[in-house]
Amino acid sequence: MYTIDDIDYIRSKLKNNGYKLTRQRFQIINVINKNKKHMSIDEIYSKVKRKNIGLSTVYRNVIILEKVGILKCINISNSNYYEIECTGEHKVHVHAQCTECNKLIDIDESKLFKNWEIIMGKMEQNYNITVDSISMVVSSVCNKCSDSSDTWQDQIINK
């Protein structure tokens, strides 16, 4: 799960911004980390309410955790999802979203894209900007939906 270094990093990130690692903040981080998926506020709340944490507490703390760089918000189809963004090491973050079921999949950009720094450099040069990060959502169809779509098409063709 977490190492001592991870907890220390989270604590210092909060402390440097004037906050403490409270029981509620730790539970929110823990739930997102354990689920290993992007979670909406309602999904986070459904997991932490058993620990006597209210919905407004979840909202307040998610905003704080995002502000200090521990959580990252991804807006997909006008819905916000949160994931752990603790280390801040990645300047590029890529997701694939299934257009059929809305499943959100993390893409390991390090294996796919070797030239991100060149792309960011060209963007900075051509548009006179400083690129802090790139966040991309690729529209796609997941294997599960693709398989069910093939079955549906086969049924029509074979009638």
Automatic annotation (TrEMBL):
Cofactors (names): Mn(2+); Fe(2+); Zn(2+)
CDD domains per the UniProt record, alphabetical: Fur_like (cd07153)
GO terms for biological process, alphabetical: negative regulation of DNA-templated transcription; regulation of secondary metabolite biosynthetic process
InterPro entries, A to Z: FUR (IPR002481), Fur_C (IPR043135), WH-like_DNA-bd_sf (IPR036388), WH_DNA-bd_sf (IPR036390)
Entry GO MF terms: DNA-binding transcription factor activity; transcription cis-regulatory region binding; zinc ion binding
Binding site for Zn(2+): 98, 101, 142, 145
UniProt entry keywords in alphabetical sequence: DNA-binding, Iron, Metal-binding, Repressor, Transcription, Transcription regulation, Zinc
Residues engaged in binding Fe cation: 117
Cofactor note: Binds 1 Mn(2+) or Fe(2+) ion per subunit.
Family per record: Belongs to the Fur family.
Identification of the protein by name: Ferric uptake regulator, Fur family
Originating organism: Clostridium pasteurianum DSM 525 = ATCC 6013
